[in-house]
Structure formats: structure tokens, C-alpha cells
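[Meeting: bench + compute handoff]

Bench side (C.D.) handed over the final construct sequence. Compute side (W.E.) agreed to return the predicted structure before the next meeting so the bench team could plan truncations. Sequence as handed over:
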Amino acid sequence: MNVIEKLFEYPQYSIPFEEKTNFLLKELNNLTAYHYEKCVPYQNIIKTIYHNNYGNSKNLSEIPFFPVRLFKNIELKSIPDSDVLKTLTSSGTTSMQVSKIFIDRETSLLQTKALASIVTSFIGNKRLPMIIIDSETSLGTASGMSARGAGLVGLSNFGRNHFYALDGNMQLKIKELLEFSEKHSGEKILIFGFTFMVWQNFLEELKKNNIKLNLDGYLIHSGGWKKLTEIAVSNEIFKEKIQEQTGISKIHNFYGMVEQVGSIYMECEQGYFHSPNFSEIILRSFDLKPSNIIGKEGIIQTLSVLPKSYPGHSILTEDLGIIHGIDDCKCGRKGVYFTISGRIPKAELRGCSDVYALAG
């Protein structure tokens, strides 16, 4: 049994940090060596920045990494074009460069299996009637889709009788929503949407039309916190208002990115994000030195054993976070738990990326 198979054998969030670290370190070293051989731009990074030292890291903080924005400038893949099953793109305006993530069948299967392991540990294995706070037009195509479309497709696997609550103009379909709620009255419901859309296109429209739902089940959401912060909506207020308007009390945010699809960090009942069995985070100071001090803010580096088709197993994000503890969260889940505290200031962000200027 290989390392990844072992990680999937354990119940989600059941592996103590030190034991999981040993599993991850072995596989991440293997992935670094594999992508070095298969991806020339990644090989250039290792040669230029890491002086060709790879595959023998003694701890997770030594695993080579690069900034996530590099995906916007360079095509990074470790497979021939003929093996590309789908290409995922990051969100962004038409004037912005977007990340392109190339997925083959093996990586896609791993991502799907990983996502299922995480989500079902929170909502159970039974598919639930599902309300999706988006328009069906946002899905994209099977061979190419945005981060938003990938999120919709990934989470829709946990529901049935899918109801897309927004029309093509992103307006709430109130009549159909009420019919869906009545049809599934007494059943547990799964709702999924991107955070700001849940607030603006769903909650605000319910309030505007003086509609209160009486739903039981789960809301899973992610992304878009910047806009909510600008209008002074905290995570606590978000949860309070959702429960007040819909009856839903089990509300879980998650942290994730298109560059590491499948490796999402779900928010527990205590309000903390948790590292799943096959992923981990490291915090770094602005000089890029590891800084995993409990309670101290740092730049988030994400590590995942899932990316096989592209070198996305060790990425420095543009997000700031705080680790609150390891193996001792009151929710009972093992491993690192953390919160997101913001984004890197632009000047610091530019400095971090400049470190890798020679890698291209």
C-alpha cells in the first residue's frame, strides 16, 4: 500500500500531527522528484532557487515551494497534452491573467476521492436534496471550467434533486425555491454557494421579500469574504443571519483554491479551519522563513499529496493566517487548526514573488 492509499485508509482528521507529517514528508519528497523530471519550468525553479537540492527534505518546511501567482505566468504541467482531461482556471476579470491548472484522470480521481472524504465527514454519506446558490450557466464545460464552476461541480456530488436557485441574470427564483422547500419539508437539505453570493443573491433577497424559510440541514460556502468585510459582515454575523432567515444552523465555511482542488480546509463547529489527512499548512514570515508559532500571523503555504499532473504540491499563497493549535481542537479533530486573517499587502507580495524572478 502506497502513502496516499494509507492516508485514505484513516478516518478523516483522525491522524495525530506527528504521524501524519511522516506520511506527508515521504510523499511530498517523491512528488518533488517526480515533477522535477517531468516539468521543465519547475526544474528551473529547483535549479535556480534551491540549487538543485530536492527530494531529501527532512521536514515539511524544507519542501521546495513557489508563489501561487506563478501559475498566472507559466504553464506548469507534468503530463503530455494528450493526457490533459480538463483545464481549470482561477477567478478573475477578463483583463487579468488567470491560473491554468492541468488535470489528468489520476489527479481528478484523487481530488474527487479527497473531497468526498472531507465533506462526508461533516454531513454524512447520504446524498441530500440540494440548493445551489448560483446559476446553472456558471458550470462551464467538462474540459474547461473556472474555479467557480469546479466548486459547483465538486460539491454537487453530495446532493440530489439539485435546484439552482438563481436564473441566468443571477436573480433568485423565489417561486421555485418555495416549491423546492415545500417538496422537501422534513428532510435534511444541503445548500452550497460562494459566500458573497449566498449573502447578496440569496439572504438579502429573502429579507427584501420578507420570506423566512424553515430548513434543516447544512450550508457549505467559501470565498468572497473581502466584499463582506467591506460592509462589516463578520463570520459570526453571517451565521447568525443565515440561521435567522433560513433555519439552517450547521454552517461550514471552507478555505481552498483552484491550484489545489480537492485539498479543502473545512471550518469546524468551533470556527477553525482544519488540515485534512492528505494536506497541511505552514506559516512563513515575510522573509519566507517558517514561522509556525501558535497565535502568530504568517503567510500560508499549502502542501498537498494530490497533484500528480502538475507541480502544485507545495504553494505559497497570498493569504495570511494564524495557527491556533495542533491536535487539541475542542471539536475533536486531530491536526493543525487555523483561521484566515487577511491578504498579503501588495508591496510585500511583490517582494515575495521577486524571489522567484529567475525561475522563469
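W.E. noted at the follow-up: The CA atoms of residues 224 and 230 lie 11 Å apart. C.D. will use this when planning the next construct.
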